[in-house]
């Protein structure tokens, strides 16, 4: 049974978490996207979340979509560019009903922490939906040849950090807990048939405009990066490859690659012109200092905000999220980059690899 010309299944499984599978034609690898706000194309519009975790108002989406889709940037995100490189249909920035899209909305509580157990539970529905749509044999092929791309973990650290005036006392035990939850999800996806996984490690969290602004509030007058927050990212990033190597030993056929998001974001902050931008510490949209107060759009607690004149000059669009231009540069490196930024395979190689 052949797939219809363009089949996309969207499954909203938890706050800030959106698995997406797009499959364009038979024998073409599907793309599954699991993400936090770095990957969310606007699905937070449809869940019981607070305004501060939504981006469905101006000026979000202004550069590409020309209207606020819910994307936490001025335009497209990494999954959008990846879909383009893979010749897949453009991933819609919001849940659509009809138009050959199959949509599943899972109940979720408001909050900023990804519920990975719920994420896995509802991912299993993808397999059931695929079997109903294309049959057991082809659904198995789609799941095994599909690429599963993850951006996860940043909310577990940044959201509590910004919500409190004092830094949470995280330790390696907290990182171990997060890694354990992620391991369970990967094993669950593997059990359903997934074999090819792409993981983004964490960016230098202490250098986000929002965290720099928090540092200023704490009396660090030069607006430098918060070392403690960046060290948390480093702890996560150190544990991630160890966990994936263990899974590779345990699970036959398990393939993975890691995109060094930490390295490319740090490099673009320190060398902005290399990435085609001029300003890398101050956000385009937000409230001073550094436009790091999360007020873009004025729908949160802080109503007043500033918006830059030329977003193409900025690495960050709002206080925590890169601009579309930055995402495009990062996507190019993820798709076709060298082993110093994406290893052991780039996404293009992994995508074309048959299982």
From TrEMBL:
Keywords: Signal. One of its GO terms (molecular function) is lipase activity. InterPro entries: GDSL, GLIP1-5/GLL25, Lipase_GDSL_AS, SGNH_hydro_sf, SGNH_plant_lipase-like. It comes from the Eukaryota. It holds the Pfam family Lipase_GDSL. GO terms for biological process: lipid metabolic process. The keyword Repeat does not apply. Residues 1-22 form the signal peptide. The keyword Signal applies. PANTHER family: GDSL ESTERASE_LIPASE 1-LIKE ISOFORM X1, GDSL-LIKE LIPASE/ACYLHYDROLASE. Belongs to the 'GDSL' lipolytic enzyme family. This is Zinc finger protein. The lineage of its organism: Eukaryota, Viridiplantae, Streptophyta, Embryophyta, Tracheophyta.
């Amino acid at each position: 049974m052949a797939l219809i010309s363009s089949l996309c299944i969207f499954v909203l499984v938890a706050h800030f978490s959106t698995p997406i599978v797009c499959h364009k034609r038979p024998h073409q690898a599907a793309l599954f996207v699991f993400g936090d706000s770095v990957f969310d194309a606007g699905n937070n519009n449809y869940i019981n979340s607070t305004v501060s975790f939504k981006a469905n108002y101006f000026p979000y989406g202004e550069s590409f979509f020309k209207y606020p889709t819910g994307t936490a940037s001025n335009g497209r995100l990494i999954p959008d560019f990846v879909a383009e490189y893979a010749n897949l249909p453009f991933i819609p920035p919001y849940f659509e009903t009809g138009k050959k899209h199959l949509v599943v909305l899972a109940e979720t509580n408001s909050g900023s922490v990804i519920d990975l157990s719920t994420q896995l539970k509802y991912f299993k529905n993808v397999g059931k939906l695929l079997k109903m749509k294309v049959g057991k044999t082809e659904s198995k092929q789609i799941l095994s040849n599909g690429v599963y791309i993850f951006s996860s973990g940043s909310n577990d650290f940044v959201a509590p950090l910004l919500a409190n005036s004092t830094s949470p006392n995280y330790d390696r035990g907290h990182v171990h807990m997060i890694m354990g939850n992620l391991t369970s999800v990967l094993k669950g996806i593997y059990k359903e048939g997934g074999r090819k996984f792409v993981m983004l490690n964490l960016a230098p969290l202490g250098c986000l405009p929002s965290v720099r602004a928090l540092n200023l509030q704490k009396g660090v007058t030069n607006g430098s990066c918060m070392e403690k927050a960046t060290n948390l990212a480093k702890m996560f990033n150190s544990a991630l490859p160890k966990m994936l190597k263990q899974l590779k030993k345990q699970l036959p056929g398990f393939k993975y690659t890691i995109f060094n998001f930490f390295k490319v974001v740090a490099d673009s902050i320190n060398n902005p012109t290399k990435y085609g931008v001029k300003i890398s510490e101050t956000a385009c949209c937000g409230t001073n200092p550094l436009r790091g107060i999360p007020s873009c759009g004025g729908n949160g607690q802080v109503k007043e905000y500033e918006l830059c004149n030329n977003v193409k000059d900025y690495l960050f669009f709002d206080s925590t999220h890169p601009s579309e231009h930055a995402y495009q540069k990062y996507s190019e490196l993820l798709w076709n980059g060298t082993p110093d930024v994406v290893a052991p395979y780039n996404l293009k190689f992994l995508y074309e690899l048959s299982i």
